[in-house]
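Sorry, explain these tokens?

***
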Amino acid sequence: MATEKKTTAISPLDAALLVAQSALNSVGKDAKNQFHKYSYTSAEGMIGACRDALHGAGLVARRTTWKIDPTIGEFGILISTMVVAHPESGATLSDEIVWAIVPEKGRPYDKAMAGALTSSLNYWLRDLLMVPREDETMDSRDDREYAPRSPSRPAPTPAPAAARPAAAPAARPAPTTTPVNGEWVEIYCKYVNEGVAGKNQTPYVNVKNHEGQVWFVWDTALQSVLKQCQGKTIWVIEEQSKVAGKPPRIVQIRTAPPEEVDHGMDID
């Protein structure tokens, strides 16, 4: 007896993605590496071509949220939520994308973060539309002198099983309300601004509370957290400036009261 073959209806969003993928076989090389003298596909070229193919198929794509997790890696990672939607049917598809933030000489933290935002969007769109890989932005970099950094918190080398005594895991100490290096100060971030200062154009972020008091943040890891805190209350440890009349600088930030702090958001 013949077996009836079952078929599954394709969703309108998948049907539209098929149209978009079919319309984009490749993306031309629109930029040139001046040092090595070869052409490559820029992030802007890839994003523009993918946008045209998506719109032609009745699809829209966007980044709905992004945040920096400073507890992962040496400089933190960018975590983004990407969504492609089919307005005609109301169907949506979302992905979470992670991307490393890697400041280098001549590439301060704000530029590294902006690069991570652009590169993560570029590669997500390329994967979404299955665009054949050609020489892209990363391939245009001259990385011949790059040397990986030593991890800031290297994992310990495990001892042989026979030499490792059984032991109960150490309890994580509870946070104290008064750290050894200062008192926690509560600040309402009414305004958060950023800029550069000095001959070296060092990036900084400053925060002003509702009373007009100002604090500066020079540490790049703390800056990324503070930029997300406008309109929120934070708790900080401050250090007075060595220059008379200058605002104090922030050396630690917590986004929850010290006695209730979530260790995942504790930035030292």
Q: What stands out?
A: The domain at 185-265 is CATH 2.40.50 (OB fold (Dihydrolipoamide Acetyltransferase, E2P)). Confidence is low (pLDDT under 50) at residues 150-164, 168-180, 261-268. DSSP finds four helices and eleven strands in the chain. Residues 16 and 57 are 5 Å apart (CA to CA).
